[in-house]
Amino acid sequence: MKWKMKILLSTVKKLRKSEVKKQVDKRLKEFKALNKKGNKAWFCELCFCILTANSKAETAMNIQKEVSAHGFCTWCLSDIRGAIKRNKHRFHNNKAKFIVEAREHLDIRDKIKKLVAKEGQVGAREWLVKNIKGLGYKEASHFLRNVGYFDVAILDRHILALMNEDKKALTRKHYLAIEKKFRQPAGKLGMKCGELDLYMWYMKTGRVMK
């Protein structure tokens, strides 16, 4: 079954006239505000996105709340692993290791700002995937959106389901091909990818989450 573009466009247009728009606008405002914060806040969000891979967003949010930016930056491997395990994340060993290793990039805000200026958001995403263990294209796109960059698509299982795309692991080539399709309705609606993602996520879950 092909992706029904007209139905998607019609549904999003209706949502933009509802209370959902206020929720979406609030989230976008939060992302823009985070863009102005420092390296520590950005690193905390990076760790959140590492935790979202193969897990529910709520679980990652609970861990982020418990550990906090300070903990992600300073806690020992054992303490981070314990917090992840307490929140019933399935991959506490690997996730804790990825977070500790990511500390090589505690200046993540400075690096991404320079990369976006030089290579654009897509170039910054390529760097994230290559340099941060635990981040695939989805998670790297998620991180960029949450720190205020809206030109890349977060192709998680909810979005792929709406697009009638295969939810199996995506290769780089496949991800970019689907992202190209995603840009079509975004363009027709006059939206950035990061904004349309919030509406589509609401269509599948009934919630507007980060």
List keywords for this structure.
mainly alpha, 210 residues, globular, 71% helix, Endonuclease III, domain 1
Write up what this structure looks like.
By secondary structure, this protein is mainly alpha-helical. The protein has 2 domains: 5-33 and 153-205, Endonuclease Iii, domain 2 (Orthogonal Bundle), CATH 1.10.1670.10; 37-146, Endonuclease III, domain 1 (Orthogonal Bundle). It is built from 11 helices and no strands. It has helices at 5-15, 20-35, 39-52, 57-74, 77-86, 92-101, 108-131, 137-146, 157-162, 172-189, 193-205. α2 (20-35) crosses α11 (193-205) and α3 (39-52) crosses α4. The protein is globular and about 50 Å long. The two termini are 29 Å apart. The model has no long low-confidence stretch (mean pLDDT 95).
Major β-sheet profile: none
What is the CATH-assigned architecture of the largest domain? Orthogonal Bundle
Q: For the CA atoms, what is the radius of gyration?
A: 17 Å
How many β strands by DSSP?
0
**Morphology call:** globular
CATH fold assignment of the largest domain: Endonuclease III, domain 1
Assign a percent range to the helix content: over 70%
Q: Return the CATH class of the largest domain.
A: Mainly Alpha
Spans of at least 5 consecutive residues with low confidence: none
What is the count of distinct domains?
2
